[in-house]
Amino acid sequence: MRYEVSGKQIDVGEALQSHVKQELGVVMEKYSQRPTDATVIFSRSGHEYVCEATVHLSSGLNASAKAHANEIYAAFDAAGEKMDKQLRRYKRRLKDHHKQRPEPVELFGASSYILAAEQEDVESESETLQPIIVAEMETKIPSLSVGEAVMQMELAGAPVLIFRNEGKDGLNVVYRREDGNIGWIDPRN
Hints:
Elements: E1 2-7, H1 14-31, E2 35-45, E3 48-57, E4 62-69, H2 72-89, H3 91-100, E5 107-115, H4 122-127, E6 133-144, H5 146-156, E7 160-165, E8 171-176, E9 182-185
Parallel strand pairs: 1-2, 6-7
Antiparallel strand pairs: 2-3, 3-4, 5-6, 7-8, 8-9
């Protein structure tokens, strides 16, 4: 497995890098047979350290965890525990997923835009009603079943996931509802 351990305006030493590789390797051995790479990014938020860990599995699924702590090692350990818990929860489904899907998840390209937050300026409103585009990026939309999409959303810790439904030819959305349930939007053709 390939590791990328970095810091945003933080020097990440060799001891921390080896700790990350060792602990993350133990978690991945227990639950995932084929991880491809892991990205761990450390940053500061006020007096706390923030650790964001993402592991890419060869099946195309991603597992993500984020944690805060007063010490950098504690932040990583908390993120590692969250990832361990996520993968433990989905262990059976991940193993079944690998057996049923010999090919990786197919990804389709799409454009992604970041729009500027609305300003409370009356003059700019009269000029145009179009939002200002701050950034353009390329994003990938996976082709998954509904069950796999829900699992991917949970593993990534995301509130919403757009995917291409394998059973039908169209884009679908799964999202976490305020009542804790999962919503699924399946537009008719």
